[in-house]
Predict the structure.
Amino acid sequence: MPFLDLKSVKLHYDTFGSGPFLLLIPGADGRGSVFHDVAQYLSRQFTVVCYDRRGFSQSHLLGAQDFTNRLSIDADDASALLVHLSPEPAFVFGTSSGAIVATQLLIQHPERVRALVAHEPPAFALLPEELRVQAAGLVEHIYTLYRAQGVQAAMEVFSGGLSAGEDGARMRFCMDTTRGDEIRANSMYWFEFELRQYTSAVLDVERIVAEKAKYVPVAGSTSGDGPGVAPIALLAGKVGKEVVRLPGGHISYMVDSEVFADALLTLLKGAVKT
């Protein structure tokens, strides 16, 4: 159970397999273990790194924190982990708010990234004004619901806006506070410190475009073209690429891990060639 000691956090991570490094950055749940199933398949060709993001699960905060710059610090954590593990640039996959962290990693530390697969980042601040205002209103409604009625009531609305059917049910299960203290703490931490902050983060599009050769915009094949996909569709246009559709929806890496892993491996092989 390895840890990396940084200035204000003890970062917990796991590695699987061998080969080029592939860092997986989780979204709202914050736990690296959400990737453990898919990592078993990806590890056939990569050294897969799964980690608990700062403040989640076993990545315990140490001392005073700078919550006003949390996204930037989250990206610094990912960079420090890669420096610790690999002398070479790594492949990176980020999903949901983890894709926002991954994109910020590319902005701040492009030398650490060989290729970045950004899966449905809810970067609503990038949207045109009318859609941005609508998204901000929905996020504020979800946060207010969380404060008034708790995590589960808020997750019903949040997951419904991103995924229906099996994906939505699995998202609610991942953040079901009745499952134990770890899930309860993770869920409340995310609602309090990331829901509004990360979705409103203004990503440096110029820096993303400058690194466009490394940027691979993706969404689920069943995710449609709604608000959950709009930000990555916009970024795809900025970098002159089409949105690649991977099997399933917002959390298909959990719903059908082997099928998702096969598609991601194929995509990463293409990134190597380019």
Remarks:
- The mean pLDDT is 92.
- The first strand starts at residue 3 and ends at 5.
